[in-house]
């Protein structure tokens, strides 16, 4: 009997069926140990010795493997076929050796790119040793990420209060988003005009031709820059006669794209399906690990973390056979198509992502998949089969036409394209993100019959005004594409990188576009000013290339670390000597458009609007950066740092409190004020004064006595619940408007609902929330509730959004997600680890559960440092006065 170790329990169950009774397949549940999240886990002074820690849950699984080894003939390590998989195998073997659980028994490593019976059994016939070069590359990456996180983050916390930790790859990805935002802010729109003529052939068919030259001069796009020039050329075209100079029909071919890599799958799933990168990887993981297809569990796609674009020869043959049967022989190209990647630093060590069998069409597996799984499988199948289909044959027609107005001549051009043979387009066509050019090259339709030298009748001339637009913000898909082009990060890290940036509140996503928060822009500006080299795109890409060379056995991993650490440590030491004023001066210049937005009246945005003499500047407080006046304390103007700050509305409440009248019940003065955290209303004075921040969307200029009294009266009692007899109240919380009943919260759609909702509707909202399961406290969106998969012991594992944040649930076990893990990004394997850890808690005195400390660092390579939680305030905080930096 042999012990086989894989990562996940679902994978273990499937492979156990394939291998039969001669094998015991156990799951490691991902990494069994990691660097403790504390100083000293990587020690440069000891030539980068590393301390590893096995957490409680992993210790139990290692014990299970060690116990199984006592009666086994050998150990087979069958983790994923990439660096992480190689590292997991190495960790398992190293821990077992230290426990003396191996003895002299043989240890082999096997890899398979797909979880199918044939792939697994074939892999078992070709075992190998652990690839130490791949392990070295993993160790180097893990050490680099740790050293950056644990040395750079404390500098951020000291010099930039309110900032969270920084990471090697995440900081560069954040810079891309922030640089694009700065580019948008600097953009100056320019006017341009397009002219076209609607013409009619002698046969009565109309078509449109655009102006391309005038009076012997070729016109480049956007060459006509004002209305005067546009009207002059329009008059030329209006009075001209038109004659066809030439008609050229040119056949062209369009070739299919290669099968998916990790990044192109994430991009396509975003464009076509609206999936986030993390959602794409969750669904792909399930398709890879196996789906029950009529009583047999089988992986439907190959391994989904890859930058390879080529399919295995047998898969190419299968695809060509499927093309012939599904579409016909004409759709099969003469020779198989071979692809190579254009991405920088691509390893191409594994196959592209493809179906494990092209015979399993999306229609055939439809009944076995949920909606998201079917959508993604359909995408993979179609892209895979299209990659081995014939080219599309397109005829592109260009018609050159002369416009003659009394000797003044201009040239107009009409273009059109016709698909003569659809080829691969019959299976798959790309869909681009907003702001990207279409793969189709042009969107021109078919032109009518037009013959050379014939005259055309003018129907009308169109002159349309346009303005240049700034580059679009990145979406998840376009950012991943850019990172891949630059060679930043690796396929397995893209989704985790984006999730980390969101979790740290460095970016937000609005309508699928990535928008940097003020906090994110501050961090980027700080790093660009004082750690320029380490957020440069080329430097990060070069480091990735060195890691690839380590994995190929071409570089010594410790030498790479020595070279990096020497300069990085010197930079850290230099930055420690920085004064806060140096930091603020640099940030004021780097972030000028954000800190000092232009004013409508054209006045100097750096002069205080309240006192008229003070200079505005960034200030650093306990909770982060804000903008304050240099004349403090005489002038206490402050405002939050945001892209839309600095308006007159802000300034109108930034000096002295504005009286809104007396409270009708207490007789105390109600005032409108502004603090570091924005405008708020206050009743009375002193520490016991009641305060309420203005809800999102309520401008200070619109706040009157009635609204202020309503805000200060919250929470509002609505009435007793007819079933429980307990009071239902409405209020405003950190996450928006909510209802409170019997200790549970339910979301309200608008702020106005808080003041107007009646008892009947409140009871209905609470009942609707209860029917959906436990919900989040005051969240602005419905509680997250999705199924990750089944527990090995039976029963579904779900993700829910609870009172204290997102958590995973299995039966009666609830396990809170770590702060660096979002509900969208948690995987089944991670959930199983959390549940096992939670279930393994030991009772403490008094019968309460005593939690086992887990210090397993996040797989993203980001270091964390524990910080004490702040006490929750019993009432809204008053905005503290600005302090001099």
Salient structural properties:
four-stranded parallel β-sheet, alpha+beta, six-stranded antiparallel beta barrel, single chain, 22% strand, 885 residues, isomerase, EC 5.6.2.1, disordered C terminus, 24 helices
Task: Give the low-pLDDT segments.
Answer: 438-442, 645-655, 774-785, 841-885
Helix content: 25-40%
Q: What is the gyration radius calculated from CA atoms?
A: 32 Å
Strand content: 15-25%
| Helix/sheet category | alpha+beta
Please count the helical segments.
24
Overall body shape: globular
Q: Taking all residues together, what is the mean pLDDT?
A: 84
Number of strands: 34
Order of strands across the main sheet: 7-8-14-13-10-15
Explain the overall architecture.
By secondary structure, this protein is of the alpha+beta class. The protein contains 24 helices and 34 strands. Helix 6 packs across helix 15. Mean pLDDT is 84; it is low at 438-442, 645-655, 774-785 and 841-885.
Write the layout of secondary structure elements.
Layout: E1 2-6, H1 9-19, E2 23-27, E3 42-43, E4 49-50, H2 56-69, E5 74-77, H3 83-98, E6 107-109, H4 117-124, H5 132-159, H6 168-186, E7 191-200, E8 206-214, E9 217-218, H7 227-238, E10 241-254, H8 262-273, H9 277-289, E11 291-293, E12 296-298, H10 313-327, H11 362-365, H12 371-386, E13 392-405, E14 408-421, E15 455-467, H13 476-486, H14 494-503, E16 507-510, E17 513-516, H15 518-530, H16 537-551, H17 557-576, H18 580-590, H19 592-595, E18 616-621, E19 624-629, E20 638-640, H20 648-651, E21 658-662, E22 669-675, E23 678-683, E24 690-693, H21 705-712, E25 716-720, E26 727-733, E27 736-741, E28 744-747, H22 751-756, H23 759-771, E29 786-790, E30 796-802, E31 805-810, E32 813-816, H24 828-839, E33 842-843, E34 849-850
Helix pairs in contact: 3-5, 5-16, 5-17, 6-14, 6-15, 8-12, 8-13, 9-12, 15-18
